[in-house]
Amino acid sequence: MCGIVGIFDIQGNCEIDRDLLSRMNESQFHRGPDEGGLHTEPGLGFGHRRLSIIDLSSGQQPMHSPDGNVVLTYNGEVYNFLELRTELEALGFVFRTHCDTEVILYAWQAWGEACVERLRGMFAFAIWDRAKQTLFLARDRLGVKPLFYSLLANGQFIFGSELKALGQHPLLPREIDHSAIEDYFGFGYIPDPKTIYRGVMKLEPGYCLTIRHGQTAWQPRQYWDVRFEAGPSRGVEETGHELIERLREAVKIRMVADVPLGAFLSGGVDSSAVVAMMAGLSADPVNTCSISFGDPKFNESEFAAQVATRYHTAHRVEQVDPDDFSLIDRLSDLYDEPYADSSALPTYRVCELAKKQVTVVLSGDGGDENLAGYRRHRWHTYEDRMRALLPDAVRVPIFSSLGRIYPKLDWAPKVLRAKSTLESIGRDSMAGYFHSVSVMSNDMRAKLFSARLKSELQGYQAIEVFRRYRQSAPEHPLSMVQYLDLKTYLAGDILTKVDRASMAHALEVRVPILDYQLVEWMATIPPELKLNGREGKYVFKKALESYLPNDILYRPKMGFSVPLAGWFRGPLKQRVQDALLGDTLRQTGWFDPSFLQHIVSQHQAGLRDYSSPIWSLLMFEAFLRKNLA
């Protein structure tokens, strides 16, 4: 696991500023503290920071082909590299190392752009082919590893694993993209391919990019997508058995490392399943770690302990202070752009704990997206059945009106909090799902944004992020929202959170449930085997009954939450007032001061729960204060 950077002069062959390239590279020192390397030649510079995992003594980067014509800088792990190595050796390639980096280098020489389709793993890499005068960049299929890029005014194309690396370049455009502000306050993160800056992009998951020297126009190309198409008819038992076998194989190939290896163990279904598979594959106790919270509403450590005891793991647990908000300012350093998932705080802490024990961990991320584990998946299918009962001409005006007049009862029992559901049913299926996942509703954003920002947006709304997938999204309502989650929430929120939090501690996280071959197969499982009545991940849980106790499998989902509402009325009360009502937000001219005052006063008086909007505004203010001062 590493960090990569690069500078490419598209039109000319100017000398690359080696000091600048070094600063870009060293800004990502945390991603690869073991070694660093630079390569420069006229018109091109590559940088690399290395976290050594396999073949510790060799595999230094940037790596050159024996003839010197091809140079590679690469971040990630390719789990089928031994198979590819055998295939490449049969083609006549002679290997000098035992690492996967050299496999990618020769795969490019053997198969060109199609090499990326043969790689099974997580990766972001750049290849310079001097003979072809071609720069090739690629990102893995699900977006486990990040890659940012920008074309500068001087004709240089720059890229890096983190936005902070690009920020070292004095010509990086720092004009805020107003549509990204709308996206951020809609989703709580900025979905790919945008960043907060106009003219700076993320390479999307499953995409590659080819730029030839002298070329004036180029576009990223999609090389992979997941298709939700029903496979052969199978029962619960047969499907579950194959699911376990495929998961076990995905776990097995991720347990290869020349450094200490372990797993996150939260006590939830997915991480517990991964640990169960690891225990069956390892002769030694699996290293596991989890964090606990003082507040039982947020504490899953007792369930993690059950799994650790059952599988005799070397388990480590530490309690996090329930008022552990000291990291708030650290988050703006980690994420480089506004990012509003508050579970980044405990994720940072569990990565910090894991690093005391191991260098590589396996996580259970991806189970909810692939097997319908979120409560919102259940509610969406329910709402879609309601939509189907009435024609649009009747449904839309009735439910839209009911949603408007029904009071917002944050304090009431869940059965009485129907406002959001009524509003969702009054929309079409895709817009209804957007409403359910939004940090701030359309109405709230309309009140928050100033007339100036609305004018800049020219009618743009964050729902367009979903709409761009309309043609490729499956028709079945459950499959549709799973597809949208895989294309947006997974890469933009979940994997971003884990990548930055883990790499801040030079910790590699591997994600077996996101093995692309497993993902493709899970997409063929019929929706009714994923969501059965009120039970999400149904077939997975049934298959795990012989591996995990029922109180792990069938208890209510907790998630990695933090007590924001109490913080903002207690120890962070003054900080909220200073941030939301202070100069930083006011001077942008993008927000309505009276509505900011309303959010703060209503929440701190206990009349409304505005904890999610307040957190997103706190993170936005911290970004502005750090980056645009």
How would you sum up this structure, described in words?
By secondary structure, the chain is an alpha+beta fold. It contains 28 helices and 19 strands. The strands form four sheets. Strands 2-3-1-9-8-10 form a six-stranded antiparallel beta sheet. Strands 4-5-6-7-11-12 form a six-stranded antiparallel beta sheet, covered by helices on one side. The protein has a five-stranded parallel beta sheet with strand order 15-14-13-16-17, sandwiched between helices. Strand 14, helix 8 (301-310) and strand 15 form a beta-alpha-beta unit. Helix 13 (392-405) runs antiparallel to helix 14. It is globular, with a radius of gyration of 24 Å.
What labels would you give this structure?
alpha+beta, 629 residues, single chain, six-stranded antiparallel sheet
**What is the percentage of strand-forming residues?**
15-25%
- The structure class reads alpha+beta
Largest sheet strand order: 2-3-1-9-8-10
Number of helices: 28
The residue ranges in which pLDDT falls below 50 over 5 or more consecutive positions are: 411-417
- The general outline is globular
Give the helix level as a range of percent.
40-55%
- Note the main sheet: 6 strands, antiparallel
Distance between the termini: 32 Å
Report the radius of gyration as a whole number of Å: 24 Å
